[in-house]
Amino acid sequence: MTIKLNKDVEQRLLSSIQRYCAENMDEEVGELKARLLLDYCLREIGPSVYNQAILDAQSAMQERIADIETVCYETEFSYWKK
After folding, report:
1. Over 70: is that where the pLDDT of 74 sits?
2. Quick check: is 28 in a domain?
3. Helix or strand or coil: residue 43?
4. 77 belongs to a structural domain
5. Quick one: pLDDT at residue 5?
6. How many domains in the chain?
7. What is the C-alpha to C-alpha distance for residues 43 and 57, in angstroms, rounded to an integer?
8. What is the C-alpha separation between 80 and 77, in angstroms, rounded?
9. Is residue 62 part of a domain?
10. 79 — alpha (psi -120 to 50), left (phi > 0) or beta?
11. Could you count the other beta carbons within 10 Å of the beta carbon of residue 1?
């Protein structure tokens, strides 16, 4: 599954990469180099981050499902007091 970014997010990331390189590496990076780095990150690092996010979401959902019996339970036949 290829990670696709919308144009606004992509442009903001490219600007962020350029700023990071300028401030932390003392190197001005053009849009082409920033785009190549972003593409590398999306292809190489992105899937690992994505997969971990899916695992985290599954774990959170499984915890919520495990709690459903206690959260969504109503005592039956409770009209007549015992």
Report:
1. yes
2. yes
3. helix
4. no
5. 95
6. 1
7. 22
8. 7
9. yes
10. alpha
11. 6
Identity of residue 38: L
Give the CA angle between residues 32, 44, 35 to the nearest 5°: 10
Eight-state DSSP code of residue 13: H
Structure-token pair, residue 51? 């997969």
Residue 57, amino acid: A
Query: Which amino acid is located at 13 in the chain?
Result: L
Q: What is the C-alpha separation between 5 and 68, in angstroms, rounded? A: 35
Total residues found in the chain within this entry: 82
25 close to 17: Cβ distance less than 8 angstroms: no
24-70 pLDDT, tens digit per residue, is 999 999 999 999 999 999 999 999 999 999 999 999 999 999 988 88
- What's the DSSP call for residue 42? I
Q: Residue written as tokens 């190549």?
A: 36
